[in-house]
Amino acid sequence: MNNPVVPIPAQLQTFLALDLGLKRTGVAVGNRLLGTATPQTTIRAEGDARFTQVAQRIAEWQPDALVLGVPYHPDGASHDNTARALKFGRQLRGRFGLPVFEVDERYSTTEAHSSGARDADAASACIILEQFFRSLA
């Protein structure tokens, strides 16, 4: 599954990226103009506690939109975590009223580990966000 080039409205400039995991959610922020992402403290929470912490990050950074990594098998097939991430994206839209852009995040965690990241979850969120920036039309 390739990420198509998506026309994103120019007024959307600041993005908060999330890399959803069962126990941890990586977080990064970035600005479209610079095209780079900065890692933030990983959220170590599940369920509603996760949404409380996401709300705190949204209040802190005031992003114009969210970017969510969606995992797939290497061949592009969906799996349980794919469905979990897509559901999380729908919940984010409903709770926060912000646009949510989904990015195929295959290999982002592997890339984060191979780069020696101390916080692979936050590094993966950066990789996802920078991949999103590269896809912008």
From TrEMBL:
Residues 13-112 form the YqgF/RNase H-like domain. Gene3D superfamilies: YqgF/RNase H-like domain. CDD domains: YqgF (cd16964). It comes from the Bacteria. It is found in: Cytoplasm. The keyword Phosphoprotein does not apply. It is an enzyme of class 3 (hydrolase). Its EC number is 3.1.-.-. InterPro entries: RNaseH-like_sf, YqgF, YqgF/RNaseH-like_dom, YqgF/RNaseH-like_dom_sf. Keywords: Cytoplasm, Hydrolase, Nuclease, Ribosome biogenesis. Could be a nuclease involved in processing of the 5'-end of pre-16S rRNA. HAMAP family: Nuclease_YqgF (MF_00651). Belongs to the YqgF HJR family. This is Putative pre-16S rRNA nuclease. It comes from Giesbergeria sinuosa. The lineage of its organism: Bacteria, Pseudomonadati, Pseudomonadota, Betaproteobacteria, Burkholderiales. The gene is ruvX.
